[in-house]
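Recall the central idea of this unit: under ordinary conditions, the amino acid sequence of a chain determines the structure it adopts. In this exercise we apply that idea directly, starting from the sequence alone.
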Amino acid sequence: MREFPRLDAQLAAVVAALRARGAPPPFSGSAPQARARMRDAVLAARARFGLPEVRSAEDAVAVHANVHVPVRVYRPHAHRHPLPTVVFFHGGGFVLGSVELMDDIARKLCRDTEAVVVSVDYRLAPEHPFPAAHDDALAATLWALANAAALGGDAARVAVAGESAGGNLAASSAIRARDLGLALAAQLLIVPGVDFARDTAALERSGRDYSLLTPHDLREVARLYLGASAHSAAQFPPSPLRHTDLSGLPPALVAVAGCDALCGEGLAYAQRLQAAGVCTRVLRYDDMFHPFFGFFELSQAARSANDEICDCFAAMLRNGPGNARGAST
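Accordingly, the structure predicted from this sequence is:
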């Protein structure tokens, strides 16, 4: 019998506690009900652990071509100037999450990469189906490119970053910026969902226990976000993995989790980038589940993984594409 990676013990305890309480699947019920459950869980954790410190955090509105997108701009305690700028897209399956709920993740990214972080409050489905989130992501990216100096950053070092659904938005924005003739410095893709045409039946046949993001959850994400555009699942956008030309994209750092249903497509995207000549580094964490990047207060292994991702991305932003080469497992 094939052996699968074993989940980190501290994360396994989190999963066991959720199951003991009978916690419903993340996208069950109405979207407002699912968001309320997430909010309660995040705020309860925040009350226990507090927030990473940054120099400042202020709300703003990114405006490009009549698209208005709320953002939160974080600035680090850093002595070197100008700083790189990172446009960050939160996870949540295009349905859940917000700038406020991912405040801790954005703050840690800002602090540990010593970069100005623009966290994007893109529109959510099902109220705003595809391509709303993708359009907001591109607008925020183009706004950051045009306003990097005013934000306190270096116009030559604007990058995109995202987790899960946000990884899709970061990858998509990098492709669309390239097609507009604009150069981004780097892209950070954390457990990215890059293929809406994924084979969820095959994932189910594998017999894996994908904690906190099951194949059924992935079908719900596609149903809620794509809506009437379900026929577009195998196209770009919304699926970066399905794009026919990935050449000329910015250096990439791709982080995947071994206990994640999206691990395979994240690795496939990294391989496509490498084959297209894009400097790409892969960080693989076999004992992590899908949302590990935000669990740095609940698992020492998750904190170590988060720290390594931030350190590698910071080096890429400081020193250029050469730091994207290589692979880490």
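The CA atoms of residues 205 and 292 lie 24 Å apart.
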